[in-house]
Amino acid sequence: MTRKPAPPKPASPKAKAVKADTRPAAARVAAKPVEVVGQTLERALDPLASALKRAALKRADKQASQFSPAPDPAPSAKAPLPVSPLAAPFPAIPPIAGVELATARAGFYKHEREDLLVMRFAPGTAAAGVFTRHGVGSAPVDWCKRQLDASKGADVRALVVNAGCANSFTGKPGADAVRRVASAVGKRFACRQRDVMVASTGVIGVLLDDAKIVQRLPEVESRLTPDGWAGAARAIMTTDTFPKGAYAEARIEGETVRIAGICKGSGMIAPDMATMLAFVVTDAAISATALQTLATLYTRNTFNAVTVDGDRSTNDTLLLFATGQSAAPKVTRAGDRRLADFRNKLEAVLLDLALQLVRDGEGASKFVKVTVTGAESSASARKIARTICESPLVKTAFAGEDANWGRIVMAVGRADEPIDRDRISVKFGPLVAAQDGLVSPTYDEGKMSAYMKNRELEVAVDVGVGRASAVMWTCDLTKQYVAINGDYRS
């Protein structure tokens, strides 16, 4: 048998490395790794390329270094949202007898900002509240409703508000966290835990870390002041771009009483009593029962008459406090004639706060008042107005400065309320767009376009079936609204 010759032993890596390559130059280049080929071509074909590449790498390194974190950096904030072009200035609010305020940083936000507000009230302060009717609700809302029912609003001594965590949809642990906060505040302020109101705003589904609040109470107590309204309004902000406050003075039997309020809210605003919180304090002496009647009555045409995006919040809360520290006599009935001026001024304060919510609507550039007349009933008029205000097509037309009255008519029809198609009229400010079911013979596209460039717009619709009317306020819907809410938890 003829034996086959044994195959040669493979050369060692070192031998391979030193063995001469006798292939043509082109074949040798093609067989090399890509990066080697690139280097060879750079040297052989374009000496300038190497210099350009090094310069580019230096620029990239320099740019990257601008964003490199420093050792042990402090938490940094997101870029602040630009202040709404519709913003209202914060008013001068003097001290209200019987209430002290303080703010602190509890740490619900990663960046440096105050996110905790505490108010301490004089003994005997009456309180009333109107809350969201949202099906989910929140632990703070449940707590306030339960305690106000139990105490009938008598002798409320403190309010604790945090931003950055809604404590909503958090079950029993969320309720326990609220109770621990109220208990700790009650012990520090020498009152019962049921005398402490609690409110929260922020991300839904996140459990409140009550220890963050409790550990700040000594600091908060030392900072209580009767003159801290602007700081209080800033501490409760979330996506708000400006702090919101309102102030008025009224007369009760010749004595001056003061009314001050703050609120927060920018998105998730369509109250039905948005993320909306409002706190109003007066030094008038008014019983809790009368105060509750007034709060319920005036919510209807103020906070319930504004909408930003049609989404109700789980945490919407309006709390009204009367410290009784003025010289005015105590009033126990909401309809008492002595409260006539007070009632007007209280409604004005609530409306001022509600309209500021719309002016700070997320991404808003237009403030819009919608009036519906000729409706069969007040409820019908309100539903039609709300349908117009919450229509994405209508709101985007406002953003585009387009007097698209066809979209208004569309929204009127889909409200499913009694209307007379052949008697509907639509006006933008003083300009008639449609009447008697048709485009107006005086319609002028140029004048309409000029009017729509205003920051504040008015739309009036008559539906031709009755005498009832309603007014609602809204804002436009812009690309910025999408950007803000797409980035809310990031």
Describe the structure concisely.
The chain has helices at residues 13-18, 25-31, 34-45, 47-66, 139-151, 171-188, 210-214, 217-222, 229-235, 288-299, 340-359, 378-390, 392-399, 405-414, 445-452, 479-486, and strands spanning 99-104, 116-121, 126-131, 158-163, 196-201, 244-252, 255-264, 277-282, 317-322, 367-375, 425-428, 431-435, 438-439, 456-462, 468-475. The protein is of the alpha+beta class.
Explain what this protein looks like in three dimensions:
35% of the residues lie in helices and 20% in strands. The chain contains 16 helices and 15 strands. The protein has helices at 13-18, 25-31, 34-45, 47-66, 139-151, 171-188, 210-214, 217-222, 229-235, 288-299, 340-359, 378-390, 392-399, 405-414, 445-452, 479-486; strands spanning 99-104, 116-121, 126-131, 158-163, 196-201, 244-252, 255-264, 277-282, 317-322, 367-375, 425-428, 431-435, 438-439, 456-462, 468-475. The strands form 3 sheets. The protein has a 6-stranded mixed sheet. A 5-stranded mixed sheet has the order 3-9-8-7-6, with helices on both faces. It has a 4-stranded mixed sheet with strand order 1-2-4-5, sandwiched between helices. The termini are far apart.
Shape: globular
Low-confidence stretches: 1-53, 56-76, 268-275
* Overall pLDDT level: 85
Binned, the helix content reads 25-40%
Largest sheet properties: 6 strands, mixed
What is the secondary structure topology, with strand pairs?
Blueprint: H1 13-18, H2 25-31, H3 34-45, H4 47-66, E1 99-104, E2 116-121, E3 126-131, H5 139-151, E4 158-163, H6 171-188, E5 196-201, H7 210-214, H8 217-222, H9 229-235, E6 244-252, E7 255-264, E8 277-282, H10 288-299, E9 317-322, H11 340-359, E10 367-375, H12 378-390, H13 392-399, H14 405-414, E11 425-428, E12 431-435, E13 438-439, H15 445-452, E14 456-462, E15 468-475, H16 479-486
Parallel strand pairs: 4-5, 8-9, 10-14
Antiparallel strand pairs: 1-2, 2-4, 3-9, 6-7, 7-8, 10-15, 11-12, 11-14, 12-13
Helix pairs in contact: 3-4, 5-6, 12-14
